[in-house]
Design a protein that fits this description.
By secondary structure, the protein is mostly helical. The protein contains three helices and no strands. Helix 2 packs antiparallel against helix 3 (72-107). The longest helix is centred in the C-terminal third of the chain and has 36 residues, at 72-107. The protein is elongated.
Amino acid sequence: MTATAAANRKEKESMLIYGFAPYQPQAGEEYMSPAQLTHFQGILNAWKHELMEEVDRTVHHMQDESANLPDPNDRATQEEEFSLELRARDRERKLIRKIDEALRSIDDGEYGYCDACRVG
């Protein structure tokens, strides 16, 4: 593979979103067509899956690493590390809830439209 081809491949890979290339609408395609909705649903599901795997890794890490360390400094360090991980997971939990809301809006046919601008 030439250096140019390798650079082009790397650039294309860097543009992927959870393994999905950016959506390229067809000429005359309606806004939020079934193909677009399928595309965004795939990205959202992949993102949710990745977040859920991170939650599982955190649980296993905390179970494996939890030890009654005799040194108070080591215990304090471990507790701080766990606290930071739990805060990050809490933010991710909230993000998962928002992803679920977006997935529901796809199912309801409301995804991609402004709540304030939508005619009801």
